Amino acid sequence: MKDIPITDVRNFVLLGHTGSGKTQLLDAILFKLGVNDRLGVTAEGSSMSDYTDEEKEKKISLWAKPFAATYKSAGRNVRLVMLDTPGYADFYGQVIGASAIADAALIAVDAHAGLQVGTTRVWRRCEQLGTPCGIVLTGMDRENTDYHKALAHIQAVWGAKCVPVVLPALDGKSVTDVLADNVPAELAAAVEKAKTALIEAAAETSDVLTEKYLGGDMLTTEEIAGGLRVAVAQRKLIPVFVTVSKADLGVKELLDGIVRFFPAPSERIWKDHAGHVIETKADAPFCAQVWRTVNDPFIGHLVFLRVFGGTLKADSEIYNSTKQVKERIGTLQTFNGRKPEMLAEAEAGDIIALAKLKGTGLNDTLCAAHKTIEFAPIKFPNPVLSYAVAAKSQADEDKVGTGLHRIAEEDPTIKLERNPETHEQILSGMGDIQVDVALKRMKARSNVEVLLTTPKVPYKETITSRGEGHYKHKKQSGGRGQYGEVYLRIEPLKAGDEEWFVDDVVGGAIPSNFIPAVRKGLEEALLTGVLAHCPVVNAKVSVYDGTYHDVDSSEIAFKISARRAFSDGMAKARPVLLEPIMKISVMFPDQFMGDITGDLNHKRGRILGMGAEDGMQVITAEAPQAELFKYASELRSITGGRGSFEMEFLRYDIVPSNIAQKVVAEAQKNKKQEEE
Ligand SMILES: Nc1nc2c(ncn2[C@@H]2O[C@H](COP(=O)(O)OP(=O)(O)OP(=O)(O)O)[C@@H](O)[C@H]2O)c(=O)[nH]1
Ligand SMILES: [Mg+2]
Description:
The chain is an alpha+beta fold. It contains 16 helices and 32 strands. The strands form eight sheets. The chain has a seven-stranded mixed β-sheet, sandwiched between helices. Strands 14-13-19-10-11-18 form a six-stranded antiparallel β-sheet. Strands 24, 29, 30, 31 and 32 form a five-stranded antiparallel β-sheet that branches. Helix 12 links the parallel strand 27 and strand 28.
């Protein structure tokens, strides 16, 4: 925006628990700024942000979406670049993307509900990223909402650095900016307290100001204003606002506060992958990162960029430094909901969309030609819930693959993989609602329907002792026969062992030209163990003897012998079944402690640690994957949506024998059925 200097740009993301009023607040802002000619209401499906069919139906936001508008603050034009995000846990990937590229965050807290698991999650995210934050208390008009209780709770959990900058009147019908000149008498004491906290926070940002303040001198208005911006940028001050969006209460004060407290894009320090500080000015070299991609059936492939430095002009050539390819760009677009707007140029702080780029995808850095800036990729959370997915009608099998791949391209927390061991197509995501939305989108686009089932556990097998294996393959059925005999030893592979296969044959008992066939046979044997036909890991095989026949020996005969000798040896080497063990970290309000630990015990879980953090209980535990495929939905029902968890693969471990027996019996029964 040529007419607005970068110091008058504010870029921030709205974060919070689902239902905390983010989108409603954004709609109130868009109405106030004239972007919308009426007040969009999320509950009525008229929101500018929750505009997709799925969002209207579910009455929650599903995607992170950028908005931009101009606000006249204290006589000057300010460009506001805002990101709405979903609070629902299944769509946390959207929060990760948007929060990674925003200069500041405004965290919505429903004053009636207080801090919820979604609030704690985004708070921690901002802490990790060092994002300057503000808090906005919503829902003040709900019955039995106590502003002071809500504020006290926030300060008890997040500290006294959370200072109210806008206070509600006692009747809840108006608000007061604590830095305004005239304050109502009923709020005088509260305003004074807040003002003192603000001035102290400002004074603490520099030695000069601290000295002046402690010396008893008054800080000037400019010193206070400058100090407050620094304090917020350093996360030493978290301004707390209050709004009633639908009544347009506190919205103006919030916007003024954002201009006053939040950093301009040129004031945030951003670094590239190598740790170099990015020049965040409009006249610096251009650099931007893709934080979201969209496959729209009408518009095609869109990438959303956050411009960190420099200026991008329409119809120009830029460089994708991640993929090391040039990209020709046409028009620059911004969106306010579904409303696109063409831009001639975009500057540091802006969020824009580009269409029809050849080779640019999520996380790529785009920059001026011949620049070597590259941003670290945004790390998205691991999926925590998996289904085996198959087409309802077999004829659609191919369409399911391509359809789901297209969906997964849009959402980095949805993964589609073929498990080479169980031969299933596995669809993983963050939760059932997300999977449901993804499948509905696919049906709308490609008209395919799928069946979801619980995935098979990718068990493996290994051995726990030594075993001797022997097999002689001898067949004489007219003409040339088949002959090969193999002796081998099998034992657990040790950490220092370089090779799993050892050729200990002496004196040409098995001629060297047949050794590759023996090895090949063993490789095949390792794919299907003796227990449940699962891949065998950590077995060392030494072939030490055998016999051959001048005429009848062949590669195939030695391959068969090696395979059978392996099975013979493995059966004697105390084979065991292994299963994947996952590490989980569960966050939830105190009252669910008993239910959650009880449930984890039931799931063969082992608790590794427990602690209270940011007002929530956090348990880390390990548990078998077999028990966790549906944990996302189970935790939701245990806690009524007030719990959240992360999961990662930890290791393979031995399946307890009572469970292993069932798995083995089942596998053998299936094998028998297949053979019949
Ligand atoms: N009474 C009252 N209701 C509100 C207020 N803000 C939002 N709501 C209502 O609360 C519900 C949820 O509001 P949204 O703005 O959609 O919540 P959100 O934070 O965007 O939720 P997600 O998109 O799921 O993260 C809607 O029915 C709103 O009308 C408020 O200040 N007071
Ligand atoms: Mg929303």
